[in-house]
Amino acid sequence: MSDPRVVVTGVGTVNPLGHTVAEFWNNAIAGKNGIGPITRFDATNFYVKVAGEIRGFDAYQHMDPKVADRNPRAVHHGLVAAKEAMAQAGIDMNREVSERVGVSIACMSESDYIVRQAAILERRGPRRVDPLFIARSGPSAPSMQIGMVFQARGPNSSANSLCASGTDAIGTALNFIKLGHADVMIAGGTDSCLSSLGIAGLDILGAVTREPDPAIACRPFDADRSGFVFGEGAGMVVLESLEHAKARGAEILAELAGAGWSFDAYDQTAPSSGPEAYAMKSALERAGVAPDKVGYVNAHGTSTRLNDPTETQALKLAFGDHAYKLAVSSTKSMVGHAITASGAIESVACIMTLKSGVIHPTINYRTPDPECDLDYVPNTAREVAVDACLTNSFGLGGENCCLVFRRFKG
Predict the structure, then answer these.
(1) What stretch of H or E contains 82?
(2) pLDDT tens by residue, 141-189
(3) Which percentage of the chain shows pLDDT scores above 70?
(4) Is the pLDDT of residue 1 over 60?
């Protein structure tokens, strides 16, 4: 049996630049900034003052009130993005074999919810804790809820490889289809762990910026960068085997051609360029795409002192001289770092680049860094036809995953 090709037939997102793919993409190619002052909690006593928050989102406008009441914010974002992706794909679950439709969603437990339940236990005793605490606090909460809403009875999994999770979940879904376990997969990531506890920990680590001006807070690859901006959001894709998509006459947005993984085995916080390059090369090899055929890389691009030059070096190791011909940009410059959802949101950006022929910019790029000497599409979007693109996700602790998307050509 030949290895089936896997295509994308739907995309969805909720993030600081928009509550739909169209809104997100229009704002992204316009170079809009979705980062602003923290409102999710009182940040008066924090050095960190800005975040990539989703504003104006009301879960009750998008789902049954019972579903909204019973689930945390990450599930709300993930479910809305999944609904958008499924609607675009035109999947009719009444016509599908439900056991052949699966779900692969990345998420991280919401610390605020866990802290609240711990406080209830301490103040009011064990009989007052949420009886669904385990189900709601686990990273599998979005994948379970999305599976139930769509009655998808195929493989159901949840990836948690920190900052690589969203990409990891999509790569895992790719393999579920290639290995014959599913015809359709709803895949992506959702995250809403933007909280006082999370920011406090990352600030002590020195990973997040203390820049108070949201207009310039996130500056990937810029010499004056000072750390990433914490964000939240969701990105979802609908993947299908090419045979299944063709049989139902679906519009194909792009092909997911390959995925590659690696682990740094190096340090809990510092990245390593060699393993990052290996993940890129592995993804390209599995996709059957030569390095010089890639026109665009959606970078991990966090705006930290360590990550950006390490990723730049990894790109040179993976692409050789062609690295200097690549267009490289960072979605995080506009939406912040949504941790387990970032790779999925960035995958949506790659698909939209292939579909629209436009590469969104890296905003806030002002001062070149000698250690970061590639083409980062500074500040202004670029119209260019791209046949293949790579998206990078490098997790805190060294878990790496890269995906190759390419223009669908029959």
Answers:
(1) helix 73-89
(2) 999 999 999 999 999 999 999 999 999 999 999 999 999 999 999 999 9
(3) 100
(4) no
Tell me whether residue 340 is exposed, middle or buried, using C-beta atoms within 10 angstroms of its C-beta: 0 to 12, 13 to 18, 19 or more. Answer: buried
Q: What is the mean pLDDT of residues 256-279?
A: 95
| Share above pLDDT 90 across residues of the chain, in percent, rounded to a whole number | 89
Residue 254 is assigned to a structural domain of this protein: no
Give yes or no: residues 237 and 283 share one domain. no
CA distance 199 to 47: 10
CA distance 315 to 320: 8
Range of the domain at 62: 6-247
Contact criterion met (CB below 8 Å) for 159 and 168? yes
pTM of the model as a whole: 0.96
Per-residue confidence (pLDDT) for residue 284, from 0 to 100 = 98
The candidate with the shortest Cα–Cα distance to 250, out of 98, 92, 83, is 92
What letter does residue 71 receive in the DSSP assignment?
S
pLDDT in tens, 250-266: 999 999 999 999 999 99
Strand-pairing partners, residue 189, are 106, 235
Same domain, 271 and 166: no
Q: Which residue has the tokens 């605020």?
A: 112
Q: Which residues are catalytic?
A: 163, 300, 337
Determine the Cα–Cα distance for residues 234 and 218; give it in Å rounded to an integer: 19
Of 207, 226, 247, the one marking the end of a domain is 247
End-to-end alpha carbon distance in the chain: 20
Angle of CA points 142, 252, 143, to nearest 5°: 10
CB-based contacts of 102, cutoff 8 Å, min separation 6 = 147, 152, 154, 155, 156, 157, 173, 176, 181, 182, 184, 185, 186
The structure tokens 């900052």 sit at 163
161, HSE (Cβ side, Cα atoms, 13 Å): 27
The CATH number covering residue 383 comes to 3.40.47.10
